[in-house]
Inverse folding.
C-alpha cells in the first residue's frame, strides 16, 4: 500500500495512524510539536495522549508538514474543527493532487455553520476526493485493540471503499455509505446529547433520566439531520445511534466529561481549563441551534444544554420532561 498521512498527533489522530499501520500501511504522522514527533519515532509511544500504548514501527512522525504530505495517497485530518480552515489554507497546496482527503473530525465551523467536508471543499478539494470517517470510536479503546466498527462516507462510493479498506484491520472494521450529511451530522450532534448525559450524571440522576434524554435526544438530532438532507437510516446506524451510545456514557468521552463537570457546578471557563483536549460539543451548541432555528426545528434538550453552559439554568433542571413535548413522534 502507498504512503498514508495523518495530520494531528492527539489521541484520535495517533490512534488512527495505528489503525492504518495495523492494516498494513506505511503511515506518516504530523505532530505540531517536534518533541512529540521525536518521542513517537524513538520510543514508539505518545505518552501525553495514549499512555501505555505501543505504536507500530510503520508509523513515522514529523513536525514538518511538507515531509508528512509528500507522496501520500490518502490524507487523514485530525485537528480541532475550528482550526481546519486556517490549516488547510496553509497546507492545501502541499496535498498531492489525487490524494483522498479524509476528515476524522466532528464539529461545525462557528462562523459559517459548515460541516468539515464543506470546509475542505471550500479550500479547493473536489468532492470526489473527500471522505468522512465516523462512528462509535473512543480513541483509547481502539488503541487498546478492542473490537469496534466505523463508517467511511463519501458521495463517491469508490473513494469511501478505498478509505474503508485502508482503515480496516483485525480489530476495526470500517463500513461504507454515501450519506455524507448524515454521517457528519451524526458525529456532530451526538456530542451535544453526550454533554446533556454528562450533566445529569454529574448531578447524580440515574439511568431512567439518562435513557430518557438519550432516546429523546436521538429524536431531536435525527429531525435536525434529516431536515438538512440526511437519510433517516443513517441516524440509527454507526454514525448516529452507535456513536451516541458510546459517547454518552463513557468516561473516555471528552464531551461526557465536560458535561459531568458542568453538572457538578463548574463553569464553562473552569471546564475548558480542566480539559486536556477539545470537547467539540461545547463549541458546537450555539451554532447547531442557529442552524436548527433556520429550519424551524425544535431541539429543546440541546437548548437546555446551552442554558446550562451559559450558567442560565441549574444543571438539576435538565430533564426530558421539561421539553414541552407531550407526544412521542412515530417512527423515531
Amino acid at each position: 500500500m502507498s504512503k498514508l498521512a495523518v495530520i494531528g498527533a492527539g489521541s484520535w489522530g495517533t490512534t488512527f495512524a495505528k489503525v492504518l499501520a495495523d492494516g498494513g500501511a506505511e503511515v506518516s504522522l504530523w505532530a505540531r510539536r517536534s518533541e512529540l514527533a521525536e518521542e513517537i519515532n524513538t520510543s514508539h509511544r505518545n505518552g501525553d495522549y495514549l499512555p501505555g500504548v505501543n505504536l507500530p514501527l510503520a508509523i513515522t512522525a514529523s513536525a514538518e508538514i511538507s515531509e508528512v504530505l509528500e507522496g501520500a495517497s490518502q490524507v487523514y485530518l485530525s485537528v480541532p474543527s475550528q482550526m481546519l480552515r486556517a490549516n488547510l489554507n496553509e497546507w492545501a497546496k502541499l496535498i498531492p493532487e489525487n490524494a483522498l482527503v479524509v476528515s476524522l473530525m466532528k464539529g461545525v465551523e462557528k462562523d459559517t455553520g459548515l460541516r468539515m467536508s464543506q470546509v475542505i471543499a471550500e479550500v479547493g478539494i473536489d468532492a470526489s476526493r473527500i471522505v468522512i470517517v465516523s462512528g462509535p470510536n473512543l480513541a483509547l479503546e481502539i488503541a487498546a485493540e478492542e473490537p469496534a466498527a466505523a463508517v467511511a462516507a463519501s458521495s463517491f462510493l469508490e473513494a469511501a471503499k478505498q478509505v474503508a479498506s485502508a482503515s480496516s484491520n483485525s480489530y476495526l472494521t470500517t463500513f461504507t455509505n454515501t450519506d455524507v450529511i448524515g454521517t457528519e451530522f451524526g458525529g456532530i450532534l451526538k456530542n451535544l446529547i453526550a454533554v446533556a448525559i454528562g450533566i445529569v450524571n454529574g448531578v447524580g440522576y440515574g439511568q431512567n433520566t439518562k435513557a430518557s434524554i438519550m432516546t429523546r435526544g436521538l429524536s431531536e438530532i435525527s429531525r435536525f439531520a434529516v431536515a438538512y438532507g440526511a437519510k433517516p437510516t443513517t441516524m440509527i446506524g454507526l454514525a448516529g445511534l452507535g456513536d451516541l451510545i458510546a459517547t454518552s456514557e463513557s468516561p473516555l468521552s471528552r464531551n461526557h466529561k465536560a458535561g459531568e463537570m458542568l453538572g457538578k457546578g463548574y463553569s464553562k471557563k473552569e471546564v475548558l481549563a480542566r480539559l486536556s483536549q477539545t470537547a467539540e460539543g461545547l463549541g458546537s451548541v450555539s451554532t447547531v441551534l442557529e442552524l436548527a432555528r433556520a429550519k424551524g426545528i425544535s431541539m429543546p434538550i440541546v437548548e437546555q444544554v446551552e442554558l446550562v453552559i451559559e450558567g442560565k439554568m441549574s444543571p438539576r433542571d435538565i430533564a426530558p420532561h421539561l421539553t414541552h413535548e407531550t407526544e412521542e413522534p412515530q417512527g423515531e
User: Anything to note?
Assistant: The beta strands are 4-7, 27-30, 59-62, 74-77, 100-103, 130-134, 148-153, 172-177.
